[in-house]
Fold this sequence. Notes:
The protein is an all-alpha fold. Helices cover 49% and strands 2% of the residues.
Amino acid sequence: MRWPAPSPPLATSETPRRGIITAATALAMTMAAVYLDEGGYVNDKTDRGGETNYGISKRAYPNLDIRSLTPELAGTIYKNDYWTPAGCDLLPPDMALIVFDTAVNCGVSRAVGWLHLFPIPEDYLWNRLAYYRGLAQQKGFKLLKFLPGWVHRLELLRTAAPTMTPEDDNG
Length: 171
């Protein structure tokens, strides 16, 4: 399964030449991917984030009306609180996708820390799987129901990340 190209308002007005993926384009592509995985409004009582919309949780943003969150505001939050602090604009597009998604799902500090330990995409994703397996086994297995979704998310990343690497323009 491939993630679709972003649609407005997430799409950038920049049109990079073949083989070049700009930071703005990578941000738009990664936000579209995260939106696709996170989906819309959810209020699962067993989810530690609580009420969530577009992956933005009430736990992280207690003063925000989560149910009424717009894609535009979610995009601003993603850029200012996850993309930029995780340094994704400085990473190759494939790693930017993986680190950004990790920052959204696991926290910025964890995403950046893992990047220093696992700079290769496959290694990074294997580490993230180990983290999820550990979470699923904690506290009486209350989070076990989320493991299939987490694994699916990692599989999407494993498949999508290589497609974001710029093509060689020498052909």
